[in-house]
Write a structure and sequence with these properties.
Length: about 280
C-alpha cells in the first residue's frame, strides 16, 4: 500500500499508519477479529518491524489495543470518521428525517457518499429485518451495483465519471458481472433525468433499493439517500409507488436544511463571541 506518494510534501510514515488502520476493515481482508502482527504486516504491505512500530505508536495514541499478542481497533477510531460527518453538519440534520422516513416505510434508510468507485455509508437508520448484506457506518460497496452509487455517479461530469470508474473497488466483493460500461452509461443518463435510481438485486440476491440525491447549498450532489427492502417482501411497484415519493420529500427537506445550515456564519459568530468575551 505504501510507496505511492508522488508530491514533495508526501509523508510516507503517515500513509503507512493509515494503511495499518485501514487493514482492520473487513473489505481489506479482516473479519473484525483481532489481528496478529504478521497479519497486519501482510494486509498493509509492510515489513514486520515497520508494522510493529506503527501498531505500538497507535496503541500509545489510543487507537489500537493489544491482548495476547493480537491487535484490535479501539472506539477512538470512530472519531476519525465522525469528525468528518460532524464537520459537514449532515448527520445531525439528517437523523430526525431518516428516523421519520423509516417510521413511515417500515424499511431501513441510509445515506452514502462516493469514495473512488465505491460508496461509503455515512448515516443509517435500520429496522430488524433479514437482509442478505450487513450494513453499518463505514460499510463500502461498489457504486455501480447500488442505487446510491448510481445517483452519485450520475451527478459526475463525463470526464470525472471515467476517472472514478477506473479506480479499483476496495469493497472486497467478487468482480461484478452485470451491466456493460455502455449499459451503465445509458442508465446513468436516465437516473440523471428522472432524479432517482433503482438497484434490483444487483448487489446481492434479495436486496432491492431506491435512492435519490442529497444536495448542498450550491445544489451540488454531495450524498445519496435510499430505502432498502427485502425483494421477497416488497415489490418494485410498492418501492417506487409508495416509498419513493416519501424518500424524495425527505431528501428535499434534508437538502434544504443543510443548505440553510451551511449558509450560517458559524465561524464568524464564534469568533465575535470570543472577542466580546475577551473585551468584557
Amino acid at each position: 500500500m505504501a510507496g505511492r506518494g508522488q508530491g514533495p510534501d508526501f509523508v510516507e510514515s503517515l500513509a503507512r499508519g493509515l494503511d495499518v488502520l485501514a487493514c482492520f476493515a473487513p473489505a481489506a481482508g479482516s473479519t473484525g477479529r483481532p489481528m496478529t502482527l504478521s497479519e497486519v504486516a501482510t494486509a498493509a504491505g509492510l515489513a514486520r518491524p515497520t508494522a510493529r512500530r506503527l501498531l505500538l505508536t497507535l496503541e500509545e495514541l489510543g487507537y489500537v489495543r493489544v491482548s495476547d499478542g493480537a491487535f484490535t481497533l479501539t472506539p477512538r477510531v470512530l472519531g476519525l470518521g465522525t469528525a468528518y460527518v460532524a464537520a459537514l453538519g449532515l448527520w445531525d440534520i439528517a437523523r430526525p428525517h431518516l428516523e421519520a422516513l423509516v417510521g413511515r416505510t417500515g424499511e431501513s434508510s441510509s445515506m452514502a457518499q462516493l469514495d473512488g468507485s465505491d460508496i461509503v455509508y455515512v448515516a443509517r437508520v435500520s429496522v430488524p429485518k433479514i437482509i442478505a448484506l450487513r450494513v453499518e457506518i463505514g460499510t463500502r460497496f461498489p457504486a455501480p451495483q447500488t442505487s446510491q452509487g448510481k445517483v452519485l455517479l450520475a451527478a459526475l461530469a463525463p470526464e470525472q465519471l471515467a476517472q472514478v470508474l477506473a479506480v479499483p473497488s476496495r469493497a472486497g466483493l467478487p468482480p461484478y458481472i452485470g451491466a456493460t460500461h455502455e449499459q451503465l452509461q445509458q442508465e446513468l443518463v436516465e437516473v440523471r433525468a428522472r432524479g432517482w435510481a433503482l438497484a434490483d438485486e444487483e448487489l446481492a440476491p434479495g436486496v432491492r433499493s431506491v435512492a435519490v440525491p442529497v444536495r448542498d447549498a450550491t445544489g451540488t450532489v454531495r450524498a445519496a439517500m435510499n430505502v432498502t427492502v427485502n425483494a421477497a417482501e416488497t415489490s418494485t411497484d410498492r418501492l417506487l409507488g409508495h416509498h419513493l415519493p416519501l424518500l424524495l420529500r425527505t431528501a428535499g427537506d434534508v437538502s434544504a436544511e443543510w443548505a440553510l445550515w451551511q449558509s450560517r456564519p458559524h465561524v464568524e459568530v464564534a469568533r465575535r463571541q470570543r472577542a466580546e468575551g475577551t473585551e468584557g
